Amino acid sequence: MSRNNLYLDLKGRLEKKLSSMQENELLPPEQNIADEFGVSKPTLRRALQELADAGLIRKINGVGTVVVKPLKTISRELIFVCHDIVFFAETLKQFGAAAAQSNYFISIVPLAGDAQTQERILASAVERKPAGLVIYGDPDKQNLNAFKLISKSGIATLYLIRLPEKIEANLLEFGNADGISEIVENFYADGSRKIAVYADNRVNPVAAREREEGFMNGMKRCRLKANPTLCIKRESEAAERERFLKLFADAESSPDAVCCLNDLCAAHLITELLKRGYDISKTRFSGFDNSPLCEFIAVPIITVEPPMKEMGRTAAEMLIRQIENPHFGIQKKKLHTRIIKHRTK
Fold first, then answer.
1. % of the chain at pLDDT higher than 90
2. Domains, in order of start, for the chain
3. Are 260 and 196 in contact (CB under 8 A)?
4. FRET label pair with 248: which of 137, 160, 210, 323, CA 20 to 30 Å apart?
């Protein structure tokens, strides 16, 4: 790391340390701080002097250095507000690494609870006045008032996957619908003509709608007409599901291929068909998300791998560009998904 980057890194870490301290709290001795951050005392003193010039700390003869006021704004802090930390785990990791390389620090804030709770969480993030925000919102709560507050805050903000209702802002997404379209074309290229789409309540409703749209687009590209009896949506009734399952009892009525809208519902569908003793050896199945579950499904399956690592790195790049170039226009970018083929073990 260059000397300048080392200094910026130190300054950001000191700001973060001050943000957790109380007013009039005494800082540790300079040597202790220098040892904690692995820097020389001259470099530390330069950073402390800038914080003193900004009125955040004060040196008192015979006492030491004290916090003048709690630091509510961390000039190099990026807050990642995330509704699904498990799904975005790799994105968060890559985002943090890329931010650190540019001498920024990240805080991860889970976005959970009812609408009122989520309003408070988002408002609290704004109150910290970070350098930037990355937000993956709850797909079922896209009309919160807090999103309007964020738009007016002047804080550089990047949304992931989709924008809230009536909000125009920076957006980074991946081909949610495009991945399913590509699977349909993959099935068609291999000779499948009776292609079904299947979803259940294990698929997020917003993602389900987007992926159903991708299925229909894929069918149109292949010049195929979707058969209603082969289209089981998330909200389909139990009777419709039962009729669909019974199609697999006869080779003549069975679909050639089934596009399941995520890996979990694919696993449950396949398990149920095998439990009934149906021969599905000639039927192809797909999922979405490329989850570890795919390795344990009883039949070969293809799935869509979202670009989670690339999303983290790109999110950091887009957000920092916006922070450091405030007049940069709104950025929108779509990343590509990848088709993965899993074999049975």
1. 70
2. 3-67 (1.10.10.10), 77-168+308-335 (3.40.50.2300), 176-305 (3.40.50.2300)
3. no
4. 210
